[in-house]
């Protein structure tokens, strides 16, 4: 009677609503593939269809507001060359002079109407058009840089969501195994071969797993909010099952990754496009050393005299000392910015090389960890757990040894999941550093 009362009180105190839901719902093994949305994890997919990683990246690049803003800037920049091709508007002018002080009759006044047009010096408009075209190209390069950045953030949020759900799935399996352990302890207690302390320990261990699951659910929700925001969705919109792409069989060497980054990373291309814009600015500034021209014509109305035509031709004097100093200063400024862009390119190359190198080191280490757990540690720990179960049934080992063996197995499963997530993150850093690698279409489970 005391045992039944004790079990009832402990179960009511330790089994939170999430625990009761777990008792009513079957728990799917993570070996089945993607983390199930049942059991201790709860159904957080909301009936949404599965979301492959490639689809998440595609949707983000189409709907992300930051990428859309860059595209709008690029679209606006494409219109600028047309404005540079046009001549400045003509000047229409009306002038009156010799208006007598003792009359208000405009018929006694001499009038002149004129129209004038300014013409840039030879080749100036073509140089400005070329500069505008290079500016438009630079804005398009900014779109590519932003797309790579957003794609990397989407992949990281996707991995975070996968890891949190996979962790919850392992916790669900841990609770299921702990219940089996508690049942075994209860059977032994009923036979007078174990103490009530073993049952209490099992229930406390279950409660501890539920506490860990609360934190894992928080990480899953945070990752879902981040992923939805990056994809341009509502933050609380449900996301279906997620699964990681199968990692490549081999990771290229650091030198090959650095060469790949130099060849195709959009940020390096953006530096080159910005450098082209500065070179065009230098050409435009130097072209201001050539004069501009003004042509003007008009017609004069003169009372009591014959009307007449007028004409005027003007030319600017860019060689004036006060004007020449400004032109030379603009050339020096643009040349200094070109030198700064050369330094920026070296800095970007160094950053990308470090990202690629560190990502490769982390990828190799994560792969080695995952292989070690899967091929050696986890099979041995599983075998040790089976032995501990058999020995506990025959009173050859203690309850604590059984719980420790069970805990070791599930901890190693968590280690394998974390290693796969670390490998995915390292590959994401490599992709970001190299401007994006082709994504495989196959998938691996988190078992």
Please name the defining characteristics of this protein.
Outer membrane efflux proteins (OEP); 447 residues; disordered C terminus; alpha+beta
* CATH homologous superfamily label: Outer membrane efflux proteins (OEP)
Task: State the total count of DSSP E strands.
Answer: 4
**Major β-sheet annotation:** 4 strands, antiparallel
Q: Please state the overall shape, judged from the principal axes of the Cα atoms.
A: elongated
What's the number of helices? 11
Strand order of the largest sheet: 1-2-3-4
What's the overall average pLDDT, rounded?
83
**What is the CATH topology classification name?**
Outer membrane efflux proteins (OEP)
Distance between the termini: 42 Å
Order of helices and strands: HHHHHEEHHHHEEHH
Top CATH class: Mainly Alpha
Using only CA atoms, what is the Rg? Answer: 38 Å
Query: Could you say which structural class the secondary elements and strand pairing correspond to?
Result: alpha+beta
Integer count of domains? 1
The percentage of residues in β strands lies in 5-15%
- How much helical structure, as a percent, in the residues? 55-70%
> Runs with pLDDT <50, length 5+?
1-38, 437-447
Annotate the secondary structure layout.
Elements: H1 2-14, H2 17-24, H3 53-63, H4 65-78, H5 80-85, E1 91-97, E2 110-119, H6 124-190, H7 196-230, H8 254-264, H9 266-287, E3 293-301, E4 308-315, H10 321-393, H11 399-434
Antiparallel strand pairs: 1-2, 2-3, 3-4
